Amino acid sequence: DVTYRRGIKGLFGADYGYNALNFNLFRRFDFTRNIAQVDTYLSGGKIWGRVPFPLLFIPEGNQSYVFNSRAYNVMNFYEFATDRFIAGSVNSTFDWSPIRLFNPNNKIKICVGSKIIYGPLSEENDPAYHPDLFMFNNGIRALGNTPYAEFNIGLANIFNMIRIDYSRRLTYLDSDDTTEGNKITRGTILFSGSFSF
For residue 13, is it left (φ>0), alpha (ψ between -120 and 50) or beta? Predict the structure, then answer.
């Protein structure tokens, strides 16, 4: 899917004029004999025009204990902002687990995935260069030249419906706390429920 939005300065009292375009692609690969199922996502976006950070792209974080296949599971809510990005993720479910070495009839499956987003904030929308823009607050910061990346590994189909994942953050580990005291989590265990047959 492709999404376009436009802000028209002065319309209904709008303070900013800008154009924003973003896209999302999804593809599922099913391997023969039920060996594995691989879900791939690719997305990207760009904003033309100078806007304050609430109108920028803000990657979806997750600070709950529930695994979310579309969100960044070890990223805080509203941790990063950018005006251009490219992102991708791969989530694989293998129809096998080491438990089958001891119990061949067991239906537990292994899940492995990774997510990455790259998109340094341009000077045009950086409040450090333009004091007329809103200053970053509540722990939000610009996505830098280093991509944000994380991976997860887990077991699915426990009792035919429970999934447990360990998610680990791979980048932006340099600080234990953000400017507003929102602690950065390097790794966490997450749960979810689904039916897998």
Answer: left
Among 85, 196, 96, 197, which residue's Cα sits nearest to residue 144?
85
Counting Cβ atoms within 10 Å, is residue 165 exposed (0-12), middle (13-18) or buried (19+)? buried
SS3 1: coil
Question: Does pTM top 0.85 for this prediction?
Answer: yes
**CB 169 within 8 Å of CB 162:** no
Q: How far apart are CA 180 and CA 123, in angstroms?
A: 23
Residue pair 62/73 in contact by the 8 Å Cβ criterion:
yes
Dist. CA 27–CA 114, nearest whole Å: 15
Per-residue pLDDT 10s for the chain (197 aa) are: 999 999 999 898 888 899 999 999 999 999 877 688 999 999 999 999 999 999 999 999 999 999 998 899 999 999 999 999 999 999 999 988 888 788 888 889 999 999 999 999 999 999 999 988 989 988 899 999 999 999 999 999 888 889 999 999 999 997 654 445 568 889 999 999 865 55
List phi, psi (to 5°) of 125: -115, 15
**Each residue of 3-16: b (16+ CB within 10 Å) or e?**
eeeebeeeeeeeee
Helix H segments across 3-72? none
In 3D, which of 192, 194, 190 has the Cα closest to residue 73?
Answer: 190
